[in-house]
Design brief:
The chain is α/β, with parallel strands linked by helices. The chain has helices at 19-35, 52-65, 90-95, 106-111, 116-128, 141-145, 149-161, 166-170, 190-208, 210-215, 229-232, 250-267, and strands at 8-12, 45-49, 70-73, 98-103, 132-137, 173-176, 217-220, 240-243. It has one domain: Aldolase class I (TIM Barrel), CATH 3.20.20. It is built from twelve helices and eight strands. The longest helix is centred in the C-terminal third of the chain and has 19 residues, at 190-208.
């Protein structure tokens, strides 16, 4: 691939698959990719974000399989360590070779009310550890009905990045996940996904300049599957996907990764 931004296909398993089920998934998935002669070096990058309890199992098995699939976490503590029962620090994740951490997912914002200050601290903690944050943004149906969906998503980006340096922002990944499209409720159209990604990139350009705007990968998330991934990849500012339910099925997730690679190559010709 000649693109500056290599497409990323990241699977968010949420609270699914125990460590035994996770190991079975990895065995199936790596076999499917090997059978399809997937060229990891010149294809879309693949990442899997399992529950905390499965990260170590996934790490060990991927090493054994010699599969260059990245590992991510679904959450992180803004604190580096100490008497914080149940928390997991960024340094702990770094030791497990986590390359990414999902921050600000709508489910975390809703069920574990995380304000902007908390998200900023999480992003900083992750960046200090040398891990890339995947910042989730996106509007509900209420904001879309008011016609302020793009302003809403950009404001979410602004609130978290406003005190970061250009270099720090350049290390981020942003996932546009409209709430109304999550959970199999129906994906956004390719034009909606592209409009949001383009608006976010334009914001980054206006504040941080061309280098940052062109380096940051912007993903789409919300009911992504093998039937719609090619059309969603048409937008030049869509750099991949953060995938929920479809990432729990080895055959479907492997198919999506292969389709993203093909669609990206065709788009860049």
């Amino acid at each position: 691939m000649s693109r500056t931004r290599v497409p990323l296909v990241a699977g968010n398993w949420k609270m699914n698959l125990n460590h035994l089920e996770a190991m079975y998934f990895i065995q199936q998935f790596t076999w499917l990719m090997r059978n399809a002669h997937y060229d990891y070096e010149h294809s879309a990058e693949i990442a899997i974000c399992p529950p905390f309890t499965s990260i170590r199992s996934v790490q060990v098995l991927l090493q054994a399989e010699k599969a260059p699939i990245r590992i991510g976490a679904q959450n992180v503590s803004p604190i580096s360590g100490g008497a914080f029962t149940g928390d997991i620090s960024a340094d702990m994740l770094k030791q497990l070779d986590c390359r990414y951490v999902i921050i600000g997912h709508s489910e975390r914002r809703k069920y574990h009310p995380e304000d902007d200050a908390n998200l900023i601290n999480k992003v900083r903690a992750v960046l200090v550890a040398g891990i890339q944050p995947i910042l989730c943004v996106g509007e509900s149906i209420a904001e879309r009905s008011q016609g302020i969906e793009l302003e809403y998503a950009i404001d979410q980006v602004s609130k978290v990045t406003r005190d970061l340096s250009d270099e720090e922002v350049s290390q981020m990944i942003i996932a546009y996940e409209p709430l109304w499209a999550i959970g199999g409720n129906g994906s956004a159209s390719p034009q909606i996904a592209q409009n949001a990604a383009a608006a976010i990139r334009q914001y980054l350009l206006s504040i941080y300049g061309n280098y940052v705007a062109q380096k940051v990968r912007i993903l789409y998330g919300g009911s992504v599957n093998s039937a719609n991934v090619v059309s969603l990849m048409q937008g030049p500012d869509v750099d991949g996907f953060l995938i929920g339910g479809a990432s729990l099925k080895p055959d479907e997730f492997s198919k999506i990764a292969r389709l993203v690679t093909i669609a990206s190559a065709q788009r860049d010709e």
